User: Fold this.
Amino acid sequence: METENTNRKPRGTVTLIVLISLILVFIVYYSVMSMLSPGRKLAEIRNEIRTKTDEKSEVDQKILKDSTYVKLLKERAFLQSKTVMAQTDSIYLTLNLTDSIANLEISGVVVHKAKLSHIEISKILLGDNEYSLLSMLPSPFIISQSFSTIKKEPLMIKMAPKDTSEYKPDIMPDTSITEPVNYILVMKSGIRIYVYQMENVKLNDRINQFKFDFSDRLRDTWSALKRVVTMKVPEYHPFIKIRIPRADAKIIYRSIPKNGQIAVFS
Assistant:
């Protein structure tokens, strides 16, 4: 009996060491694959540029480093995108990150304006990679899906009274006025636009945003794990994060169509 117990301990120790080693190897492998993700996304964007444009001369490359010229290219791309959207009869969103303004427009006419209080842009879309973003701007971004803390189309089911004697006015308070508003607009290009309400004074607001961000990270982690297991590099999603007043955020989210269009100027 003493010999049997002695043998069990080493076996259990070896099994534990093997499991820990496998976990550590997977963590390292997952970390390496995740670090490769942004570079892979940038390479995809640049390859797409090469298929659309001819090879540029050295003179062209020098011009693209001029900030004034790049600014003019951005303005032209923004106007081109707005022109494309104005030709439709649908409502669309324009984000002017330079002036910190978000506009809802129909056929070129502004129907709602909101001021941005905070802007954060993914590093892959800035600096030396600005031309990569420029190549994507002449065409509007198209929303493929969204995640939100509020309903896109709120519904209220009511039973119609048989006559006026059975009619009862609504006495339920309108909770939609104070409910936290945070959402993510996922573009077909892979870019994500995060919209957070500016108000963050109540404890419920902060808890809601924490849960919302945590759910987003869980989705990304699960998606990345599935790709890593199949020996694929996880997908990287460049992002633009903005904060606007709660009321404006709600109006914008519920006004934009399900597969709506967005133009961005930065």
Q: What stands out?
A: The two ends are 75 Å apart (CA to CA).
